[in-house]
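Continuing the series of single-chain predictions for the mutant panel. This is the parent chain; the variants come on the following pages.
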Amino acid sequence: MERALGALRASVGRLHQLCRGLDDTQLAQGSYCRDRSIAEVLGHLGSSAVIWCRRLDDTLAGRATPDAFAPAVWEEWDAKLPRSKVDDALVEDEGLLERLEGLDQEDRARLALPMGPMTLSFGQVVAFRLNEHALHTWDVEVVFDDHAHLPEDAAAVVVDHLAPIVGFTARPAGAERRVAVRTSHPARDFTLHLTREGAELAVSSAPAEPDLELPAEAFCRLVYGRLDEDHCPPVRADGGVLDLLRQVFPGP
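Parent structure:
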């Protein structure tokens, strides 16, 4: 839990440092996230922070968050000017982090936040926020640095919380196949089960020669559709498995 909070704190600092010096022309540039400018990516993170804070407060108070709340927040943030999206996002981003860090042990232990079909513990809330934060920070950073990658502290948390993400991001492979994946920094072994409906990811003991070996940060980006040929570190892949997985995980 503290590792995830520390990684989130570092990611928040990284994003703020990236964005504070950007001028209006740079904010209007396209990010890596398809059809979103840098300002719009920040707007997404800002509106998400507002929603996370409300859900945290409502859950701890024992009440349901109104269904209309999130759409109203999105509408408000969509209407903001680019500079306001960025400036306001940095404020809300820091505010959510402080809210998470400020929860005492009792509140952390009792938190059970509903999220669609899931119920998230405090640790899972932090991990989910870190997932979106680290990837969207990369969406901005890579505009200015083709060699940008996810920081190792963030990747070490994100890679351990990819299983539910795979269910959302995967597209049907057209045929069933099992892909053994081994990561480094940190070292992990997974089995990726491709199905006609999508994909499932499970921790497993990979064979001596897995189908795909790559850094953990690259595997995280692959699952989020952010590992194109121009932004891919050296990997070892059998046959066309990497090209196949890029089709399965097309990204934003």
